[in-house]
Task: structure prediction
Amino acid sequence: MPATLFVHQMRYGPAQNFQYLIASSASKTAFLVDPAWDVDALLGEVETLGLSVVGALVTHHHRDHCDGVPRFVQLTGQPVYAHSADLHAVPGGAAVTAIEDGQVIGAEDLQVLCMHTPGHTAGSVSFLAGSDLCTGDTLFVGTIGRVDLPDSSAESLFWSLRKLGMLPDETAVYPGHDYADRPSSTIGEQKQRNPYMRVNQLEDFLSFVR
Ligand SMILES: [Fe+2]
Result:
């Protein structure tokens, strides 16, 4: 991945949500991660930074992460991507394109890897751009997303956390909510300090989350 990628963190809405721009300083293009709450303000930040938005990426179907998809499409006409397993519940209908694990979205100097990390929802994904990872509600700083919802799976989340744990320690973690004393972390730090990532056995994890 080129070293020109950067992540811009934003915080809109009453539910401590984070939204992100994954951007290229070379081409001045950006993906908006989780268009929700106030798309006009989010796009205002895009403009302030001198960037052009070339699409939106949805981490999962919960409304606090994607209720702005129709407005995003209306204002930009750019594509929106969500995992196939969550597509049915993402607003925006035909404007939303299904993505799968391992798929690279974007081109040239702005490329984002879709990592399927189910558990919080069946189609939860994390987006990896260079050494930056947007984790949605899969992994927070110090904790994890809920697994007691209708399409949640604690077992899936255990394996998703193991998958993220295989990334280099220095990988930056940008979560979907502002639930900690700091807004971001690293995979290495979470493997050391996040109790849910410290658990090595599935059985222990399941008894821990229930
Ligand atoms: Fe969620």
Notes: The first helix runs from residue 39 to 48. The helical segments are 39-48, 63-66, 69-76, 154-165, 187-193, 195-198, 202-209. The chain has a mean pLDDT of 97.
